[in-house]
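Chapter summary example: a protein plus iron/sulfur cluster.
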Amino acid sequence: MRLSYGSARSLNLISSGPVLEMKTIYTMFGERCVFDCAYCTQARTSKSSMDLLSRIVWPHFDLEMVVNALKNANDVKRICLQVVSAPSVKAEAFEFIRKIKMLNVPISVSARISSFEEAKAWFDQGIERLGMATDVVDEKLYETYRGGKLEKHVELLEKIANVFPNRVTTHVIVGLGESEKQVVEFIQKMYDSKISVGLFAFTPVKGTKLENKPSPSFESYRRIQISHYLIKTGLSKVCNFDFSKDGKIMGYGFDPTMVPVSAFETSGCPNCTRPYYNEKPGKEPYNLFKMKV
Ligand code: SF4
């Protein structure tokens, strides 16, 4: 199994690099996915290093070593399993969940799910939340970049959330060619169905099909973060928003200067921080997170 570099540092399994406030420990199971998402480092035909997921390095560790480090750790508020769709990965992930369940730390699993039964099998293991990435919110781009039908994926998300309300998270990548209006309408649809949204900024990584595509502008990403906050908290709804002809957000039905800084922190499952997942150290981060002091 693997740990994100920041998680391994925080669990003292490696000794170099800055110590970040890692309320969530990120693990990864499997590599080289059977699917072929155009933006993903682990995609079937990606030429990126197998040690990468987005721009983060994930070193290998022995499963027992990670379980023991977690037993001795303080302040871990969530454990997230990033499960790559690769052969025989599930058995190892299930074994890990069995071994960490007695820690009573909420567990999230992020996996590509293709049926209700598959989702139920993960919940039956005792996980608290299931992450089912949508990534692409434009129908055509979904087919091109991810494969399959967005409509079918949303139907499945809603079916699962109907049985497991407030226990499903979906990921959205901003900056793949969709409009701001499409993103915020999708966010509204998800919260109406009791599904949380984790926002990601598109990050070009060498070796992926989209390695030359630029990241979104900060102005656009901040508008989407403000919208996400207002929708999530119920302070406004998309039906109160104003948009330009090309789908840019022009108004929120709420004074955006009243939005707190927390609106710009990493979103998704509670306590998810994903430090440096989208951002280079030393540069303005898309999603705010804390260094340990
Ligand atoms: S939102 Fe964060 S904790 Fe939840 S599944 Fe996604 S990466 Fe994991």
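Key point: DSSP finds eight helices and eleven strands in the chain.
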